[in-house]
Design goal:
With about 150 residues, this protein is α+β, with helices and mostly antiparallel strands. The protein contains three helices and seven strands, in the order αβββββββαα. Helix 1 crosses helix 2. It is elongated.
Length: about 150
């Protein structure tokens, strides 16, 4: 392989990485805007937003994170939840972001409302578990939430 061929491959890879990073940033902006502009009372607030992921506080107790996988050229987002005083995380969903800006092959990241609905679909099981625990007057730990989410 010549130096020119290697350089062309490196430039191709770098270009794709820039596009993927731009798509991740655009997805994050769309989701944060949708949550902050939502009229619905979801008790969900933006907790953090950085290159390592997005974070949203739910009832100021649980932190829902959306993070890109830690692989080179990673196209998968992991949706996790953790309790305020617990380092453990529970995986509650995954999504794939394609090179053309499509989320799970059906939603373009420009569609803020669709991005928001996709996110709500991923975390719906959490709201269900919280509602059922509250309705029964039971405590809900992260471990219990993980069991419930696995059963859903």
């Amino acid at each position: 392989m010549t130096l020119t061929e290697l350089s062309e491959k490196a430039n191709f890879i770098a270009g794709h990485q820039r596009v993927l990073r731009a798509h991740w940033n655009h997805y994050g902006n769309s989701l944060v805007q949708a949550i902050t502009l939502s009229k619905a009372s979801l008790h969900l607030s933006v907790g953090c937003n950085n290159d390592n992921g997005l974070g949203f506080w739910l009832f100021d107790h649980f932190l829902i994170r959306v993070t890109p996988e830690q692989a080179f050229n990673g196209h998968i987002f992991n949706y996790t939840i953790e309790a305020r005083d617990d380092d453990a995380r529970v995986l509650i969903g995954r999504a794939r972001l394609s090179d053309d800006g499509m989320l799970d092959g059906t939603i373009h990241i420009d569609q803020r409302g669709a991005v928001f609905n996709h996110f709500l679909d991923k975390i719906n099981g959490v709201y269900t578990a919280l509602y059922e625990a509250t309705e029964r007057g039971e405590s809900l730990t992260l471990a219990t939430l993980a069991q419930h989410h696995a059963a859903v």
